[in-house]
Amino acid sequence: MKQKRLFMTLILSMILCPSAVFCAEQNENAAIDAGTLTDGAYMVDIESDLPVLEADKGVLTVRDGGMTLLFQAGKNCSALFSGDALSASEADDKEILKPLMNQTFSIGTEVLDTPAVIAVLDASDRKWHQGYLTVLSGQIPEEAYESGALVTAEDLGLSDGVYSAEVSLRGGSGKASVNSPALLEIRDGRITAEIIWSSSHYDYMLVHGTRYDRQNPEGNSVFRIPVDGFDADLKVIGDTLAMSRPHEIEYMLRFDSRTVTPVPAD
User: Where are the domains of the chain?
Assistant: First the structure.
């Protein structure tokens, strides 16, 4: 009950209080941003290499094209800054994020599953310490995502050939990723994508109920799978051997039509 009351307080505070926005460095996956999610408040896991934060959970609110994270930090976290420690030490007071109440901080974010540089003012030594903060998408329910409208290769006027396009992945724990951009081959209007995982433990994928085995014996798992089109979710299942037994995990892939680029022949 105590934790429930805390996060109800966090949600209320987030509605009433403004926040600052920090810039995130792009990882190898296309970002999950506010445009991907419906407006609402969602429990999320967070990760950081700054022990003074003492936080692993928060509440993410999506509203009007922006996202705000609210979380409770440790008692020695006296202030936050969206950027590096040197910039924090030279910043104006209005750029420094102070706790709202009960060591609760409100900070904006642009993308999920992507480390963002932040600085924390440690009350024990009064120094700024630099690290990262990552908001993970794993707990966000599937119904929170915009499914998108499917755009086909024919809609885009794409002829047969090889292309690349940014691809985003969500599902599972939120820690897995796939290489982006991905290579796409179009033949007779049908799209086949090369999916390269961040792990070597995937042995097969299921797409529309059909099994596709990995293409390489060593290294990060590589698959060639059919793709319906762009700008809409494609549900896939990846079977991983990383656990004590094989485990099928459901994911969503989405290919961005705005990033389609022809790949010249060798």
Answer: 2-143, 150-262
| CATH domain 2-143 topology | Immunoglobulin-like (2.60.40)
Domains 2-143 and 150-262 share a fold: yes
Contact 77, 122 (CB under 8 A): yes
* Contact in structure between 85 and 129 (CB atoms under 8 Å): yes
Paired tokens of 261: 């680029």
Q: What is the pLDDT of residues 127-139, one digit of tens each?
A: 999 999 999 988 8
Q: Which of 147, 187, 262, 206 is nearest to 195 (CA)?
A: 206
The confidence score (pLDDT) of residue 217 equals 92
Q: Which ranges of the chain does DSSP label H, i.e. alpha helix?
A: 2-16, 85-90
pLDDT score at 151: 92
43-62 mean pLDDT:
94
CA 125 from chain centre, in angstroms, equals 33
Q: What is the pLDDT of residues 1-23, one digit of tens each?
A: 444 444 444 444 444 333 333 33
Decide if pLDDT at 179 tops 70: yes
Architecture of the domain spanning 150-262: Sandwich (2.60)
CA distance 194 to 143: 27
Residue 14, Cβ neighbours under 10 Å: how many?
Answer: 22
For residue 214, what is the DSSP state? -
Q: What is the torsional sign of CA 145, 147, 153, 157?
A: negative
Alpha carbon distance 174, 172 (integer Å): 5
Instruction: Using alpha carbons, select from 61, 75, 78 the residue that is nearest to residue 12.
Output: 61
Could you give the CA distance from residue 106 to residue 114 in angstroms, rounded to a whole number?
18
